[in-house]
Write a structure and sequence with these properties.
Blueprint: E1 4-5, E2 8-15, E3 21-29, E4 35-42, E5 49-50, E6 54-57, E7 63-70, E8 79-84, E9 92-97, E10 104-113, E11 116-118, E12 130-136
Length: 137
């Protein structure tokens, strides 16, 4: 059985961090599906802020995504996540990797609204780059 890869995303460490600004960095791959990418962040696990969605197209190439956030308070437990839209009415299994060679299961993306899925990896706070992909059965 052929499994179609869903859009996937990777976060990289934030850069250009000041007392009130930071540049959020990530990459995403649409995998041939119409996709949007955005960051959500917060000073704790609530991730109660979001950037405007960016249309990353329908291609298969890696797309760099960045966004500068301003007037925020950086906390010691600060976190951010890059989210994607995907195919409605699908269930996605999430995998993660630190090297793009070995993939480990992470969980299942939960639909929030039609075409939008959410899974936050709160264990990715050690500063090591992590890559994510979703697989639709």
């Amino acid at each position: 059985m052929h499994k179609r890869l869903a859009p996937y995303a990777s976060t990289q460490p934030a850069t250009e961090i000041t007392a009130i600004n930071a540049k959020l960095n990530g990459t995403a791959t649409p995998n041939g599906l119409p996709s949007m990418a955005w960051f959500e962040w917060g000073t704790n696990e609530s991730l109660d802020h979001a950037t405007a969605p960016i249309d990353i197209g329908t291609g298969t190439a890696l797309v760099r995504v960045t966004s500068v956030i301003s007037a925020w308070t950086f906390g010691t437990n600060g976190a951010f996540v890059l989210k994607l839209s995907g195919q409605s009415n699908a269930t996605y299994r999430l995998l993660f990797s630190t090297n793009l060679l070995n993939w480990d299961p992470l969980g299942t993306a939960m639909p929030t609204t039609p075409g939008f899925f959410e899974f936050t990896d709160f264990f990715a706070t050690n500063g090591q780059q992590r890559f994510y992909r979703a697989i639709a059965p």
